[in-house]
Amino acid sequence: MDAKNSTSKLSTSTWAGWLMAAPAFVLISLFVVIPFFFAFGLSFTNQRLISPNPTEYVGMSNFKQLLGVGVLTLEPVVDAATKTPVLDAEGKPTYPTLRSITRNNPKFPQYAGMRDLFSFFWGENQIVVLAQDTLFIKALFNTFIFVILVAPIQGALALCLALMINQKLPGINIFRTIYFMPVVVSIVVVALLWRFIYDGNNGLLNTLLGFLSFGLFEPVDWLGQPSTALGSIIAMSIWQAVGFHMVIWLSGLQTIPATLYEAADIEGASSWQKFSYITWPGLRNTAVLVLIVITMQAFSLFAQVDVMTSGGPVDSTQTVVYQAVQRGYVKQDIAGGSTISVILFLIVLSISLIQRYLTREKN
Amino acid sequence: MSQAPTERTPSGTFWRYALLTVVALIFCFPLVFMLVSSLKPDLQLLTDTGSIRAFLPVGDISLDNYAAAFKRAPVALFIFNSVLVTSVTVLLSLFVCSMGAFAFVFLNWTGRNVIFAMIVATLIVPFETIAIPMLLIVNNLPWIGTDGFTVGWLNSYHVQIVPFIADGLTIFLFVQYFKDLPRELIEAARIEGASWFQVYYKVIMPLSGPVLATAAILKFLAMYNQYLWPLMVTQAEQYRPVMVGLQYFFQLNRAWGEIMAYLSMITVPVLIFYLLLQRAFIASIASTGVKG
Fold it and tell me: Alpha helix locations (H) across chain A?
């Protein structure tokens, strides 16, 4: 803290300092720091919200249960007598059933209790990816997809909006006010409204697309199909939050000295040259901030899913926080929920460290 | 601002406004749809989504949905709960966080740097990652209230207020602002014999209008729109805020007109508040951007 040097002139007053900082310190300790370390502690136990049995230390088993994955290569079944592959009715090779390996098979203890996540063929062999908790792995996967799509798209759209709003036009503030408006509306309200937009029968989006294509467009049940549900939530989330990051970009744009643009005008620079040589380099720190903030917000995806799809259809919109709430709150499995929270925190922390490292000042 | 092109043709200006307007429509239309639909009977509401009528207050327009929403759910109670929880949290937060920031910036005390570092570190902990263990903690905390001594905070106002009074971001905003205030003022007040609390309350607070507005707006938005935490801690209807009260409208027969009326009632006051104070709202978000 740079205030240190200048305060040395001030009288040191430890009791007054402690007294005035105490309420904030106690509250943050009790409601942020302790729950944070508590989450780590609980993730090694079998704690439930209310339980007749005493809490026990269970080591890493919660983490193994959630994150356990395995890859299994299945070779075609070969007839022991003839040494030829056993073919099915359609003349295709057959493979051993997964159940024969994951249920009570002493030869493969590492796959015990796992279920298949997906599988593909590699030559004659079938490669099966298994997971101990397929639901959580799907939730983890969906959350990553959400972040990977939302972070760049929302950041770029927010920058476009900021550049549009940064023009000198009469009445431009009216547009800034409108673009920011969804930010003050609760995501719960927004998600409910967008259910009408995405509705499969008579939804506003289907109506609009039908109108634009002169009736050629076949209505889609946007939230009811595994292939479109997550994308629909992504589009809506961007719509709601893009104004927030537009404002952060705008405040970054306003730190760029006007004289740079004047000099570029005198030199006859094009708009693109001005953007790539003046604007973008000047927004470096803002870009890092926007990226980190969007990433942190995107990993917390919960309300949209809870209101719009409850994780479905076919688990295509399950997310990490949704799973944490399902287990920690709905099933009162505090240990399971805490373990998911710890995994989420470690992901968010490592991603923001990687982002900071990749975008560090190179000099 | 500086990026105004030096020359501009009338048609260029037209296209600029056209683009700005199209984008503005994209940001407006769900909210227009909400307000307009809240005035329509269910059947018309659902057929109107098939045409531009979805955004027009046409057909059988009335306030019946609003009356029906009040009959179906304790709407006034939900709004009262939200206003109470939000305003009490904002006021306590401004006091606790500004006083803490005062101690960090203007006072020299043992442990200051360690505690400040701890508070800054909490900025990278998303609330979602501590919500579940916090549920266990509040379920075991004691409280002395009108019912005497009780254990367990679930289903109460304080479970929605106390955990959110102090937060790293608010303290950080005050610290940033206080650093730029002239120190001579404080020294002068101390020489005149003012206590530290008097310096904070009578010298610093009157100078802190802009940062108080920023912190209040950010806290207001976060608290009023909160969903995950009240969902977990208010099973009893009596203490539910507006966002959780919404569940009421999804039980039994769903009436979309009433839902739209309810959504309008809980959203329009915030929108009006925003439109009146839009400069302060936008400045408050922008000021969170300086922390990078």
Answer: 3-7, 14-28, 34-42, 61-67, 99-102, 134-165, 172-184, 187-198, 204-212, 226-253, 258-267, 271-274, 280-282, 284-299, 303-308, 320-325, 334-358
